[in-house]
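[audit] Reproducing an earlier prediction to check determinism. Same input, same settings, fresh worker. If the tokens differ from the archived copy the diff job will pick it up downstream; this log only records the rerun itself.
[audit] input (528 residues):
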Amino acid sequence: MSEDQKKLLEQQLWNIANTLRGKMNADEFRDYILGFIFYKYLSEKMEIYANAILAQDHIKYNEIVEHTDTGKLMIEAIKKEALEKLGYFLKPSELFGEVAKRGTSSGSANDAPSKGNFILEDLQKILINIQLSTMGTASEEDFDNLFEDMDLNSTKLGKTPEARNEIIAKVLSHLDKIDFKLDHTELDVLGDAYEYLIGQFASGAGKKAGEFYTPQQVSMVLAKLVTTGKNKLKSVYDPTCGSGSLLLRVAKEVKEVSNFYGQEMNRTTYNLARMNMILHGVHYMKFDIKQEDTLEHPQHIDKQFEAIVANPPFSAQWSANPLFTSDDRFSQYGKLAPSSKADYAFVQHMIYHLADNGTMAIVLPHGALFRGGAEQHIRKFLIEDKNYLDAVIGLPPNLFYGTSIPTCILVFKKCRENPEEVMFIDASQHFEKMKTQNYLTDQHIDKIITTYRSRVEEEKYSKRVLLPEIAENDYNLNIPRYVDTFEAEEQIDINAIAQELQQLETEMLETDKTIADFCKELKINTPF
């Protein structure tokens, strides 16, 4: 698929999404349109898989007559295999295309009883049936309540059932006409389009967007940092995974990721993350996304990961319960992060889960570099006692949705190749402006990553700082202390300026004389 075709697809999906825009706010219509796209994906994957099984019988899945004995036997056999391979099951009459056709015609495309073009009841049952099909199987947790945010009886879709049916039928009909090319296994057209939509919703959602989405260019930086020197990863983990986009971005930087792990507190966002994983072709056995508060109730406490990335909520509150002083994640530090700022609690949590051969990268507000008290104590322990800090990277302001504050990335490794130094990079002045937000171009990203990997020093951009110098600064990591970005003002030659003023004065006198001569000839008063 060419770039132009990809952009056309993205625009088509955005136009369909806007069909619902006038009915509800951005958060709400996001959940509906992404849910319908996900249903279409599940349906088409089911149909492709079933058609492959039925190829030897020279029959298509949607041609099976469901109520016959033969049809029932065929469906049961396909269901058994589908639950093992795909993790879910849809009957022929439950396929997206069949429902879309019923919504725009007076009859059924299958043998299901005709209900005219009223499809809301059928559709709501189908979404429930997808989940029910997984009960008692290995994929049950991954599909549990995935569609709970899609209430098709909500008056936000329309005041009457008929009005709701009309708008839903219209959306399904438009989506049904789009080919997501799922049979082309080398393409991830739908996955890319889904990411595009998530990004579009995030850009329009204001402050709340930070809960579920990290800007793509920042995700790229984090992903490239933690995959440095790696072609394959056994595991990648995001303790505040949002929609899962950051985890998936890491996968694009290597040939293979064996397992994805994440935790997300918000229920709706947790559902979105699981959908995002499945829709990008990640098998249900390869991801483990949990819903809980990561700091208070960690769900992967017995695991370590080869790559860890995170964009946690900036300076969020947490309990800082004294009981945590005996928690293995925090106990060795001697102090807990303050309850008003959980930034270093997330750092400690991630360090605990980092494998010896792993790399972690976390986005933090700039204050985490220099704030005193418990945070300074934790910084000192990480640098002096453990020597885990590998790099400090300053980012431009106004990159993130909902906040304009400047941010930084801290990179940690337990086994560092350069244990005597920390790499400081000041990329805060390297960005482009786009409307009300700043963004990093590919060139800006490449410069950050190349500098980190090569550890090349560049005036006013990067410097390798020895550990004793950081100790001398009381473990203050504020980047300007180490990377001098001071621009000296151009020296002024006072004598040259005096000569220029004298020359201008002479020229003005000559001009005045010329004007006076003209006025005399015209027999009018001079203006001075």
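[audit] rerun output stored. Observation attached for the diff report: The domain at 206-481 is CATH 3.40.50.150 (Rossmann fold).
[audit] end
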